[in-house]
Design goal:
single chain; 72 residues; alpha+beta; Pdz3 Domain; four-stranded antiparallel sheet
Amino acid sequence: MAGVLSGSAAAQAGLAEGDVITSVAGHTIASSTDVSSALAAHHPGDKISLSWTDQSGQSQTATVTLGSGPAA
């Protein structure tokens, strides 16, 4: 993960810069485009499962509520 937006669902779940997302809403993640694809069917306010490996190699999982993303 390149960075974590302060106040985002990912930041609230405990993700930090350098963590690697491994699953979003039950979909295995192999690249950043996989994250976009997994989120495409979801909307702000939806609760999804998010899994990642932190910098120490520990697997983490949390349920997060999606918010609105930054303007493109």
